[in-house]
DNA sequence: AAAGAATGCAACCGCATAACA
DNA sequence: CTGTTATGCGGTTGCATTCTT
């Protein structure tokens, strides 16, 4: 596919903030002639702007149906819920909130809601630390609810304690750790990495603590525990198959690596033991 | 009161894809 | 079918405003 390029000559076009006069010109023009072609429109409208700039200004600011003012509690809840389900699909989220633009929702998320969610996570973590649950509390109430028969019988799960989650000792990973390669150096290789990176960055997770593990996606050393990651990713435990395939990436922690197989290409998820050697999965 | 830091948000950029020639 | 253009989307940037010290 040929990369799109603005056909306009941008050498003498105005950039930066819009003046009230420019706003008036655009409103007046659209009111009279409607939106017929963003690229051609600026000239007859008397604007020294690119069509792209005009479109953005109209869509994000000048449209008459744009809702002003603070987000309501209900709107917040919708955004949070949809973001959990869809990720950064701002336009889709905006479609559920009449009068709100994708840009506005995106800004609102980055400046308010992500922090709010992070604080809730922190609170949950603190609560966990004050009142640590046993591993059993992470398990489903019934085996069939998890589709993970045999999990409790695994020697690894039965040996775990809450202390393992917050240990700062290096993991005993399934594969080889590329110690000198941070996640940022591996970003291009996998969508799984991309998704994981963006999510973790959203929560200010120290990227230097993230390493690539051969064949198993990414793993974390130090920083957030599995439970913390689990809260961030809003994952049930154990994860359902579709969760892994939608790009959550590996949700690892010391001792156990929960990963889709081979960097998320085809099958999974698999629950790898710390001594994973290629076939020790409990959940084929 | 002033300076620096943090925050909020409008605007821009690059890319993907639909639409068209 | 292929190449080109227009539009829309998500990530990022930069600046104005507000807050903190």
Provide a descriptive summary of the structure in words.
The structure is a single chain. The chain is mainly α. The protein has helices spanning 20-33, 42-45, 51-62, 73-86, 90-95, 102-130, 143-146, 155-159, 162-166, 183-186, 191-202, 226-233, 241-248; strands at 177-182, 210-213, 218-220, 251-253, 256-259, 270-272. The protein has 3 domains: 20-62, Homeodomain-like (Arc Repressor Mutant, subunit A), CATH 1.10.10; 73-127, Arc Repressor Mutant, subunit A, CATH 1.10.10.60; 153-272, no CATH class. It has a 3-stranded antiparallel sheet with strand order 1-2-3. A 3-stranded antiparallel sheet has the order 4-5-6. The longest helix has 29 residues, at 102-130. The protein is elongated and about 65 Å long. It binds a DNA duplex (21 and 21 nucleotides) through residues 1-7, 15-18, 37-39, 50-53, 55-57, 59-61, 88-91, 102-104, 106-108, 110-112, 198.
Question: How do the strands of the widest beta sheet line up side by side?
Answer: 1-2-3
- How many distinct helices? 13
> What is the averaged pLDDT score?
55
SSE topology string: HHHHHHHHHEHHEEHHEEE
Percent of residues in beta strands: 5-15%
Please provide the count of β strands.
6
Which percent range fits the helix content? 40-55%
Residue stretches low in confidence (pLDDT < 50, at least 5 long) are: 1-10, 133-200, 205-284
């Amino acid at each position: 596919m040929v990369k799109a390029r603005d056909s306009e000559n941008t050498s003498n076009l105005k950039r930066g903030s819009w003046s009230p006069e420019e706003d008036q010109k655009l409103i007046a023009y659209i009111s009279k002639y409607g939106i017929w072609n963003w690229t051609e429109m600026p000239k007859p409208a008397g604007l020294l702007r690119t069509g792209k700039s005009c479109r953005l200004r109209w869509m994000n600011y000048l449209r008459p149906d744009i809702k002003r003012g603070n987000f309501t509690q209900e709107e917040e809840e919708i955004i949070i819920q949809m973001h959990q389900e869809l990720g950064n699909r701002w336009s889709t989220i905006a479609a559920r909130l009449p009068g709100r633009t994708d840009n506005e929702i995106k800004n609102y998320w980055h400046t308010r809601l992500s922090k709010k969610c992070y604080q809730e996570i922190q609170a949950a973590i603190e609560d966990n630390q004050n009142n640590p649950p046993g591993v059993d509390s992470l398990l489903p109430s019934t085996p069939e609810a998890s589709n993970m028969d045999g999990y409790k019988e695994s020697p690894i799960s039965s040996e775990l304690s809450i202390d393992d989650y917050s240990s700062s000792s290096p993991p005993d990973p399934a594969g080889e750790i590329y110690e000198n390669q941070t996640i940022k150096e591996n970003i291009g290789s996998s969508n799984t990495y991309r998704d994981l990176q963006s999510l973790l960055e959203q929560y200010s997770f120290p990227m230097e603590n993230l390493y690539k593990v051969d064949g198993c996606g990414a793993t974390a050393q130090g920083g957030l525990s599995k439970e913390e990651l689990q809260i961030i990713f809003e994952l049930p435990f154990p994860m359902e198959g579709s969760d892994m395939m939608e790009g959550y990436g590996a949700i690892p922690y010391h001792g156990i690596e929960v990963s889709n197989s081979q960097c998320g290409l085809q099958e999974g998820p698999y629950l790898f033991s710390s001594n994973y050697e290629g076939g020790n999965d409990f959940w084929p």
